[in-house]
């Protein structure tokens, strides 16, 4: 669409950079493998990406919506063979199930925490393609459970995330260190993430050990060509917004403008070029601004922080004006009109805000608080399209199964449209007003009529509808009367049928009746469509239906004849294009666009498109000037990134002479610590990692140094909960020199303040006070203040220097005699943590409780007696029962001491 | 700020240089001397005269006394004060002081005021010194904070550890908050809102995912996580 207006210059650059690469002929074994892939179904550009990546390792960056799953699928098909061992990182669950179901082969494996160690080893040895959780992989690589030299290669999805957490990079480094032949192929659909930060692309490529960068924007000539052949037929409906709405929009924009100016005025020294009203409207803005301000956040005045928060609020308002219905918008807006809010946020007191409030109330009230809300302008068009255009088309085409997909941005809108279509606009607004507790004196004229009509109808109607459905479906259906309670639920998607109503009492305008299909979740969509002759309407978000990985796939499943885009989104549009191009239809798909012309909605769509284009231009520019070292792929021994900072050889030999292990330096690391970056960084410094589940300490550096690592937020939590005190007691019991490592976030300033920006200084000092108290009680506890994991790793190395290595058996043996490793594999850890905290549950009875009760659902069914049986003692049972079933309210805090007093006094009297 | 610490530096110098010949004898005399037995107030070495942190000690009495460390907060607690800027200029100063201190006191604090922009390298070295010399490193980012820290040590001198130990008996409401916040994305505010909306834990467990997501502050993502965690089977298959 608008993507097509490409800059020819870039196009040229892009094409030349691709053609300079001379394609070497593939060797025969590769050709054999290629036979497995079905290239026919792929579009031209997909084929090219596929061949590129098969031929040479690299990083593929494609535009949003140009889904790479088909390429990946074929890639997996190629490698799905017992002779290969391919590891796939960063997949989502939906993707895994999709690929597994598509390939359906015993060579596809899925490895998560649920698979135990021996099974894992077996499955690695049997080869094939493995979808694996990175944290497990790292541990298995370190423990040599995977034959590293036998690994055929890695496929990394969402490659832009590689730097965020070190885990993937660590796994790849471990792999490259001992395997010089395997491949690494990486994919990403998020071009914008590569433009943040300095040299991001280069750093990602270095971390991935790839030398090639393949860029596939939407304006790439091959992409344009392959999508052009079969384009969907697009009908754009530019819908003007009502006068009231456009005024409201102006006021909000004005408020944003004032806020932005104010922010710039009081922060003259900070680079705030990015902060413009236009940018405020994009989704990423908040994230970007936060990132930019993070390092100086504690230096900002509280007013500037409030202004940043205000911008967010205003953005939310402008979006809800466009997306939500007027009644919801009004109620959202009114929630900001309170004394308390005005004390913190200044925008509410500005002049445009006053006008905004009055304008908003005229949106839904006429005269003296008479409820007469306007409708969303899109509703009329939507109903027109559904009731007039589409039936007309259907008659012309004479197709049998007609499926209409309505796409919108969020669940709330899905819900809104569902309610709208089932109840009609008047009744929906009325119900919504009641629901949101909007106060009004009387109903508007048209509403009175329709409200009554709606109310009157709703009583006799439901059974009729149900009957109607029964005749068409022949299936049991939940009675309509249950619906009102349930309709609050916001679901992912809705299915409606549109049938010509035969009831005579309905007026002409209600020619069509939209009926909800509740049982859709148990049914296949195609089944539904076969059973019903009338056109089916599906209301969905851009993300597609639940369980499918993206919109393109869910479209393939549904095969709609019409699509109505209720909101705009580039990704969704491209996915529709992709779907259409793959389908190669005779009759093109019809897509209706409902868009408010000349509004923020259109603007934010255009902005996001422009930003993506700029990001690609930047990437293409970077690629043309990028210097890639010959050894970046890590296949030769010279690769710099692979070199670990080993201590000088003379030192090594000396150590080798002393200890039998040949000077192997290692640190014992608790299994749970693999969530942090530190193990990877320690390993990089030339110290081996010994992953073990230990209960005392996180890192054991030498035979007597034991370190408990706390990030700042952990520190606060564990000081408050008392865990840290307990951990220190434990460490002192077993180690001579316990240490507390306080690790600050490297992206934030090295100080206390920034973490607690909302709290006042006094409460901030509370934590330090507790830390001081801790030192008073553990005078020999050493505190290490580290600004980043990098610094921690460096210090660890220095602390280890020349000291005796730690003892793995000792570390494993101490602590509770309960083996945590067993515990963790036996029970689901998140619910285990939850149960552990419940009153009445302690280390003695938790095992029995978990084994006998099975789940929280059954725990709440148990009587006090039954709990006593399980927990073995009345006191605990009573505590637990009370915690589950008693009312809790915060006032208890103040009243409780009194109550206790009274009870005590009472007890005394009694005695 | 700059002037102040330069003054401070000058003072340290003046303290150290003229006394130099006599210092050794002094040191010997002092190491044999036991920590001062005065306990009613915070003791400050005269060496610290003029240190701006003294101004912010206002909740406990303090007086100058002839002690080896800079501050004595209790019978077994002492502190040495070091400004990083000063340490940069006189890296040997702290070694001298440590030699003097020997093995006295049980809790030995090295109170470091971070007053330079890039403290990481120096801090790393100080951390190593602390580990070798058996000191506890405590950082302060301003003179006021440093003063407050010393003050707190004096106030907490005989305080039991109850405050930082696991509280067995707290109000059931707080306990419930703790229980709920043990589920990853749920923070304290969310937990309070949840309890306010559903009143009992039973209510929260019985609530549907969409009902949960309507609780203020809980988006669909958090609601989903909460819901799946609560309804997870305890045992893995």
Automatic annotation (TrEMBL), chain B:
Q: Which CDD domains match?
A: ERCC1_C-like
Q: Which GO terms describe its biological process?
A: double-strand break repair; mitotic recombination; nucleotide-excision repair; regulation of telomere maintenance; UV-damage excision repair
Keywords (A to Z) from UniProt: DNA damage, DNA repair, DNA-binding, Nucleus
Every ERCC1-like central domain range: 42-154
Return the Polar residues bias intervals. 29-39
Q: Does the keyword DNA-binding apply?
A: yes
Disordered as annotated region, ranges: 1-39
Which InterPro entries does this one have?
A: ERCC1-like_central_dom, ERCC1/RAD10/SWI10, Restrct_endonuc-II-like, RuvA_2-like
- Please give the superkingdom of this protein's source: Eukaryota
Q: Which GO terms describe its molecular function?
A: damaged DNA binding; single-stranded DNA binding
Q: Name one GO cellular component term.
A: nucleotide-excision repair factor 1 complex
* Keyword Lyase included in the entry's annotation: no
Location within or outside the cell = Nucleus
List the Pfam families hit by this protein, alphabetically: HHH_5, Rad10
Say which family it is in: Belongs to the ERCC1/RAD10/SWI10 family.
Q: What does this protein do?
A: Non-catalytic component of a structure-specific DNA repair endonuclease responsible for the 5'-incision during DNA repair. Responsible, in conjunction with SLX4, for the first step in the repair of interstrand cross-links (ICL). Participates in the processing of anaphase bridge-generating DNA structures, which consist in incompletely processed DNA lesions arising during S or G2 phase, and can result in cytokinesis failure. Also required for homology-directed repair (HDR) of DNA double-strand breaks, in conjunction with SLX4.
Q: Which PANTHER family match?
A: DNA EXCISION REPAIR PROTEIN ERCC-1, EXCISION REPAIR CROSS-COMPLEMENTING 1 ERCC1
> What is this protein called in UniProt?
DNA excision repair protein ERCC-1
Q: Give the organism the record lists.
A: Zophobas morio
């Amino acid at each position: 669409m608008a993507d097509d207006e490409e800059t020819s210059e870039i196009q040229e650059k892009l094409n030349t950079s691709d053609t300079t690469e001379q394609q070497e002929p593939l060797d025969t074994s590769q050709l054999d493998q290629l036979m497995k892939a079905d290239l026919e179904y792929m579009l031209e550009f997909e084929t090219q990406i596929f061949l590129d990546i098969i031929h040479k390792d690299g990083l593929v960056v494609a535009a949003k919506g140009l889904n790479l799953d088909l390429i990946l699928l074929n890639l997996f098909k190629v490698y799905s063979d017992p002779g290969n061992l391919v590891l796939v990182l960063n997949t989502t669950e939906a993707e895994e199930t999709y690929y597994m179901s598509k390939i359906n082969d015993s060579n596809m494996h899925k490895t998560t925490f649920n698979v135990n160690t021996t099974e894992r080893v077996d499955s690695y040895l049997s080869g094939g393609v493995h979808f694996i959780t990175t944290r497990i992989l790292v541990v298995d690589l370190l423990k040599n459970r995977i034959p590293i030299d036998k690994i055929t290669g890695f496929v990394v999805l969402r490659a832009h995330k590689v730097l965020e957490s070190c885990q993937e990079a660590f796994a790849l480094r471990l792999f490259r260190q001992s395997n010089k032949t395997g491949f690494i192929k990486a994919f990403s659909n998020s071009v914008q993430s590569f433009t943040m930060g300095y040299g991001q692309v280069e750093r990602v490529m270095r971390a991935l050990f790839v030398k090639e960068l393949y860029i596939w924007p939407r304006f790439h000539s091959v992409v344009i060509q392959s999508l052009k052949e079969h384009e969907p037929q697009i009908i754009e409906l530019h819908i003007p917004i009502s006068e009231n709405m456009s005024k409201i929009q102006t006021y909000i924009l004005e408020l944003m403008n004032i806020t932005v100016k104010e922010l710039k005025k009081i922060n003259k020294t900070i680079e705030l070029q990015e902060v413009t009203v236009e940018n405020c409207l994009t989704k990423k803005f908040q994230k970007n601004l936060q990132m930019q301000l993070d390092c100086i956040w504690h230096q900002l005045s509280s007013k500037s922080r409030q202004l940043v928060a205000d911008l967010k609020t205003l953005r939310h308002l402008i979006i809800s004006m466009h997306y939500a219905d007027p009644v919801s918008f009004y109620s959202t807006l009114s929630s900001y009109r309170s004394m308390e809010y005005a004390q913190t946020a200044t925008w509410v007191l500005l002049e445009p805000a006053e006008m905004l409030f009055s304008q908003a109330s005229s949106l839904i009230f006429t005269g003296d608080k008479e409820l007469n809300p306007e409708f969303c302008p899109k509703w009329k068009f939507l109903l027109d399209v559904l009731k007039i255009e589409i039936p007309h088309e259907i008659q012309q085409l004479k197709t049998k199964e007609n499926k209409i997909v309505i796409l919108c941005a969020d669940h709330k809108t899905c819900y809104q449209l569902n309610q709208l279509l089932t109840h009609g606009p008047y009744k929906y607004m009325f119900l919504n007003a009641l629901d949101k507790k909007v106060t009004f004196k009387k109903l508007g004229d048209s509403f009175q009529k329709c409200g009554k009509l709606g109310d009157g109808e709703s009583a006799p109607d439901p059974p009729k509808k149900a009957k109607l459905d029964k005749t068409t479906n022949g299936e049991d259906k939940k009675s309509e009367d249950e619906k009102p309670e349930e309709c609050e639920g916001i679901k992912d998607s809705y299915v409606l049928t549109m049938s010509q109503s035969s009831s005579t009492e309905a007026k002409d305008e209600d020619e069509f009746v939209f009926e909800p299909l509740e049982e859709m979740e148990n049914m296949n969509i195609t089944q539904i469509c076969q059973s019903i002759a009338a056109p089916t309407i599906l209301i969905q978000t851009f993300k597609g239906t639940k369980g499918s990985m993206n919109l393109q796939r869910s479209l393939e499943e549904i095969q709609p004849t019409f699509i109505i885009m209720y909101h705009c989104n580039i990704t969704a549009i491209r996915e529709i294009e992709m779907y259409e191009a793959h389908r190669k239809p005779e009759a093109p798909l019809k897509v209706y666009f409902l868009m408010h012309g000349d509004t923020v909605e259109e603007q934010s769509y255009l902005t996001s498109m422009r930003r993506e284009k700029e990001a690609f231009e930047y990437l293409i520019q970077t690629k043309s000037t990028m210097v890639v070292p010959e050894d970046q792929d890590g296949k030769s021994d010279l690769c710099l990134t692979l070199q670990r900072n080993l201590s000088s050889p003379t030192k090594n030999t000396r150590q080798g002479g002393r200890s039998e292990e040949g000077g192997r330096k290692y640190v014992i690391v608790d299994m749970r610590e693999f969530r942090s970056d530190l193990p990877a960084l320690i390993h990089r410094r030339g110290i081996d990692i010994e992953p073990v589940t230990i209960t005392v300490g996180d890192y054991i550096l030498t035979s007597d140094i034991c370190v408990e690592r706390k990030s700042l937020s952990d520190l606060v939590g564990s000081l408050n909960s008392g865990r840290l005190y307990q951990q220190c007691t434990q460490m002192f019991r077993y180690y001579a020199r316990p240490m507390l490592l306080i690790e600050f976030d490297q992206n934030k300033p090295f100080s206390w303040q920034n973490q607690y920006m909302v709290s006042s200084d006094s409460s901030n000092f509370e934590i330090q006070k507790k830390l001081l108290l801790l030192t008073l009680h553990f005078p020999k506890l050493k505190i290490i203040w580290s600004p980043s994991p990098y610094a921690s790793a460096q210090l660890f190395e220095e602390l280890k220097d020349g000291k005796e290595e730690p003892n793995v058996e000792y570390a494993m043996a101490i602590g509770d005699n309960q083996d945590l490793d067993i515990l963790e594999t036996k029970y689901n850890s998140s619910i285990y943590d939850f149960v552990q905290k419940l009153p009445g549950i302690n280390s003695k009875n938790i095992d029995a409780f978990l084994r006998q009760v099975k789940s929280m659902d059954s725990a709440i069914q148990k009587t006090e007696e039954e709990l006593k049986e399980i927990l073995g003692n009345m006191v605990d049972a009573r505590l637990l029962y009370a915690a589950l079933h008693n009312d809790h309210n915060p006032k208890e805090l103040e009243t409780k001491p009194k109550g206790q007093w009274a009870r005590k006094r009472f007890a005394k009297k009694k005695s | 700020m700059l002037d102040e610490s330069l003054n401070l530096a000058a003072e340290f110098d003046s303290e150290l240089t003229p006394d130099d010949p006599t210092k050794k004898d002094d040191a010997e005399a002092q190491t044999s001397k036991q920590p001062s037995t005065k306990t009613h107030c915070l003791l400050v070495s005269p060496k610290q005269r003029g240190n701006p942190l003294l101004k912010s000690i206002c909740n406990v009495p303090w007086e100058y006394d002839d002690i080896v460390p800079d501050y004595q907060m209790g019978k077994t607690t002492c502190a040495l004060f070091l400004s990083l800027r000063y340490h940069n200029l006189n890296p040997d100063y702290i070694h001298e002081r440590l030699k003097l201190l020997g093995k006295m006191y049980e809790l030995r604090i090295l109170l470091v005021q971070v007053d330079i922009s890039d403290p990481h390298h120096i801090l790393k070295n100080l951390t190593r010194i602390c580990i070798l010399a058996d000191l506890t490193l405590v950082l302060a980012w301003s003179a006021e904070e440093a003063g407050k820290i010393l003050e707190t040590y004096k106030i907490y001198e005989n305080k039991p550890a109850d405050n930082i130990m696991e509280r067995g008996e707290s109000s059931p409401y707080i306990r419930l908050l703790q229980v709920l916040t043990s589920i990853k994305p749920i923070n304290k505010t969310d937990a309070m809102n949840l309890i306010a909306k559903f009143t009992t834990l039973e209510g929260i467990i019985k609530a549907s995912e969409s009902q949960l997501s309507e609780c203020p502050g809980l988006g669909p993502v958090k609601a989903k996580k909460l819901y799946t965690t609560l309804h997870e089977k305890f045992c893995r298959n």
